[in-house]
Specification:
single chain, 366 residues, alpha/beta, Chorismate Mutase Domain, subunit A, D-Maltodextrin-Binding Protein, domain 2, six-stranded mixed beta sheet, five-stranded mixed beta sheet, 12 helices, 43% helix
Length: 366
């Protein structure tokens, strides 16, 4: 059989498979509509709003898909495909509005789209505080805020907002940070007179900038999205930003992947108003304020060790109520509904003057 005939037969098989995929996706969408109808009818009888988005259910589905994946596609890529299918089907039930730290083109927006899919409605906000407010006032269904970068550490403003907010953490997102040097189409690297970027982005690309463009001035701006916006309209200006910003502002990369660390990753938290049931692979976040006495921190941490619960993060912030007193942000494995976690919470309360349960949520599935 000649190559052309072989290719034609393979393409016929692909066309047949595509037709089957379309039928199955359409059937899944019809099931989503049926689910929406059942939830609406149940909500009317229970006199409460229907819950369309189930974070723990989505995490379970995505984990199961990755576990069953036979290849040759990478499990993460397969999960991303199913994330979009689930996002589109959910939009048939109820499109989700998601507040994020804007403007358009930021990594926060990229994180929101990674977690909720392209069918979600992203709503940019000028500050982390305003993201919290949008969800608190039910102007948006969920919010996405940065909490930690692998090279720059914790985001203090996010932790401070949790002190005063009633919101729950309903999910987490891990987003690899890949910085590009972007400029308007047709711009040459030699013509760049100013480099813009968020303060952290400039710091994360310091070595590359020092070696490649040591004499070009750098200016910190509110966000990489703002840097990209200005690079698109100002001559001789380049921005440090990601692929989403390049697409939204029609910019071209003068240099790609210029971050100093190849493992640079930012974690984001998803904000919601309702607690999330256990998914089987969960984390819990707490804010704890200890009494100002010797061994206070040890008293907070000992219950985790004694009950075999692994801590994944601990950080401190000034309490802002009394000088030289601190609030500890603690993340651990497990769910607040676990029996052992209830015992740990009781023991921590004995050694603390404040214990705030920020929520239990699925570990980032992709």
């Amino acid at each position: 059989m000649d190559p052309d005939e072989q290719l034609n037969k393979i393409r016929e098989r692909i066309d047949a498979i595509d037709s089957q995929l379309l039928d199955l996706i359409s059937e899944r969408a019809r099931c989503a509509r049926e689910v929406a109808q059942v939830k609406l009818e149940a909500a009317q009888s229970e006199d409460g709003p229907p819950v369309f988005y189930r974070p723990e259910r989505e995490a379970q589905v995505l984990r199961a898909i990755q576990e069953r994946n036979p290849g040759p596609l990478a499990s993460e890529h397969v999960a991303s495909i199913f994330r979009e299918i689930m996002s589109t089907c959910l939009a048939l039930e109820q499109p989700l509005s998601v507040a994020f730290l804007g403007p358009d083109g930021t990594y926060s927006q990229a994180a929101a789209l990674k977690h909720f899919g392209q069918s979600a409605v992203p709503v940019g906000q000028a500050s982390i505080h305003k993201v919290f407010r949008q969800v608190e006032e039910r102007l948006c269904d969920y919010g996405v805020v940065p909490v930690e970068n692998s090279t720059e550490g914790m985001v203090g403003q996010t932790l401070d907002c949790f002190l005063e907010s009633p919101l729950q953490i309903t999910g987490e997102i891990e987003l690899p940070v890949v910085h590009h040097l972007l400029a308007a189409r047709g711009t040459e690297l030699s013509s760049i007179k100013l480099i813009l970027g968020h303060e952290q982005a400039l710091g994360q690309c310091r070595h590359w900038l020092d070696s490649q463009l040591p004499d070009v001035p750098r200016e910190a701006v509110a966000s990489n999205g703002e840097a990209a916006r200005r690079a698109g309209i100002e001559s001789g200006v380049a921005a440090i930003a990601g692929e989403l910003a390049a697409t939204l502002h029609q910019l071209e990369p003068l240099a790609s992947a210029i971050q100093d660390s190849s493992t640079n990753t930012t974690r984001f938290l998803v904000l919601g108003k309702e607690s999330v049931p256990a998914s089987g692979h969960d984390k819990t976040s707490l804010l704890v304020s200890a009494r100002n006495r010797p061994g206070a921190l040890l008293g907070l941490l000992r219950p985790f060790e004694e009950n075999g619960i692994s801590l994944t993060r601990i950080d401190s912030r000034p309490s802002k109520t009394e000088k030289w007193t601190y609030v500890f942000y603690i993340e651990c494995e497990g769910h607040l509904t676990d029996e052992v976690m209830g015992e740990v919470m009781g023991q921590i309360e004995e050694h603390s003057i404040m214990l705030k349960r920020l929520g239990s949520y699925p570990r980032a599935p992709i």
